[in-house]
Amino acid sequence: MIQASSLRFRMMALFCVVVGVLLAASHFALYEVLKREIHTQLDRQLIEASSPVVADLATDPDESDVAQLNIPDEYFEVTDPAGHVTVRSQNLGTGKLPLPPIPANLSATIFRSVDDHERGGLRLVLIPFRNRTGEHVLVLAAPTRDADRALLTFRHMIYVFFPLSLLLTAALSAWYVGRSLRPVAELTRQAREMVGRAARGDRRAPWRPLEVPNPQDELGRLAATFNELFASLDSVLRQLRQFVSDASHELRTPLSVLRGETELTLSETRTPAEYQKALRSIEDELKMLSRIVEGLFTLAMADAGQLRLAREPLYLNEVLEESCALATPMARAKGMTIERDLNDEVFNIGDEPFLRQLFLIFLDNAIKYSPSNTRVRVRLQAPNGMAQATFQDEGMGIADEHLPHIFERFYRGAPHNSEEVQSGGLGLAIAQAIVNAEGGSIHCQTAVGRGTTFTINLPIRSR
Asked: Bridge partners of 136?
């Protein structure tokens, strides 16, 4: 049942109204053309039938020949200019034609249509002529019943076919509009199902893409676009659920440690050294919580497009040198060295704190997930107007199945064959957010058991 307020009904009604008006106009125009053509043919027949009679009367004033005429469905009269009948054909008998008023000084042939109670509708032709007896008018009449019957038959056909055409148009338009709007109806159903699943918290029901019967038309492109949108939304929702779950898990551990340390410290009186040890443990966990919260805040600002980076003049080689200096104590603790190739001065416009954080993320990962007594090579160059920073370690590398996911938040890979992914933290996600905000890119080359190389490309800005 089609509701009167639905788009399908309105489109179908509009289509039917437009087609109905066009059909009515075309039928009316066709009827008028047919009517005119039939009258034209009848007038031509009257002229052809009257021409020899007029020629005979013009040369022979004796009008008795007209009185002898007895042609079926052709009635002749000869009148004077005043309209008085002087002679009529034999088939008229004592009757006469219902003559219309004859214009004064008639000089050209005219046609008239009249009604006769005995013969029905008649078509008259009035032809003025002159002979030696004076001015006369020949009137020839022919019944219009055949023409009227043809027009009546055509009208009956219109009365039958016009409503049938409208019904067929309504059926076809309902089918076509319904078929065309099927992607929209399916889109509405899918959106309603997604809202329902979200309200119920149901994650098991799979999302199915919309059917796109004709991808070239507007509705087909709309359905394809919504397929992309729904796929993106479904992916974002899944990532959001996973992100919330992982973030909750990451925050649960330091909070549990904090609560355990606090309860243990308050359970009995302790020595100052024991209190100091407990406070150090609490401080470490608070630092971890701060890093996680700050990372989440940075990523939330990046997702909202509100990660604002300062635009200050700086030298990238100096910022990278400071980052290496900050990471050196951690490297020495593992017997590692950081080899620098920072001889080229690279001037740029950027945010120094964020860039330092970016470089420290890759230095921290390289040191954490490399064996002791290995090297981390850091290089900076500026080819083709791009600043290129490279971080190469000798760690365990990243397995191929984990490589596409290393920039996902809290992603965890198998610890025995993965490197940066083993942290399950936010470092690489934050690094990607900073690089994206700077308009750059990150590339990773890795080999399991041989190490990983991260390359950061940043555009060089003059101001």
From this structure: 129
pLDDT in tens, 269-318: 778 887 788 788 777 777 777 766 776 667 677 666 667 777 888 989 99
How many of the other CB atoms lie within 10 Å of CB of 190?
17
Interacting residues of 15 by C-beta distance below 8 A, sequence separation 6+: 169, 173, 177
Q: How many CA atoms lie within 13 A of 10 on its CB side?
A: 3
Contact status, residue 351 vs residue 311, Cβ threshold 8 Å: yes
> Torsion over CA of 426, 430, 436 and 441, rounded to 10 degrees?
-70
Own/partner pairs, 428-432, CB within 8 angstroms, 24+ separation: 428/361, 428/365, 429/295, 429/299, 430/295, 430/298, 430/299, 430/357, 430/361, 431/358, 431/361, 431/362, 431/407, 432/407
Structural domains of the chain ordered from first start? 7-173 (3.30.450), 204-307 (1.10.287.130), 312-459 (3.30.565.10)
Q: How far apart (Å, rounded) are the C-alpha atoms in residues 58 and 387?
A: 112
Q: What is the 3-state secondary structure (H, E, C) of the chain?
A: CCCCCCHHHHHHHHHHHHHHHHHHHHHHHHHHHHHHHHHHHHHHHHHHHHHHHHHHHHHCCCCHHHHCCCCCCCEEEEECCCCCEEEECHHHCCCCCCCCCCCCCCCCCEEEEEEECCCEEEEEEEEEEEECCEEEEEEEEEECHHHHHHHHHHHHHHHHHHHHHHHHHHHHHHHHHHHHCHHHHHHHHHHHHHHHHHHHCCCCCCCCCCCCCCCCCHHHHHHHHHHHHHHHHHHHHHHHHHHHHHHHHHHHHHHHHHHHHHHHHHHCCCCHHHHHHHHHHHHHHHHHHHHHHHHHHHHHHHHCCCCCCCCEEEEHHHHHHHHHHHHHHHHHHCCCEEEEECCCCCEEEECHHHHHHHHHHHHHHHHHCCCCCCEEEEEEECHHHEEEEEEECCCCCCCCCCHHHCCCCCCCCCCCCCCHHHHCCCHHHHHHHHHHHCCCEEEEEEECCCEEEEEEEEECCCC
Res. 202 pLDDT band, cuts 50 70 90: low
Which contacts (CB < 8 Å, 24+ apart) does range 203-206 have? 203/238, 203/241
16-57: pLDDT as tens digits: 888 888 888 888 899 899 988 988 898 898 888 888 888 888
Which pLDDT value is given to residue 442?
92
Q: At 229, which amino acid appears?
A: L
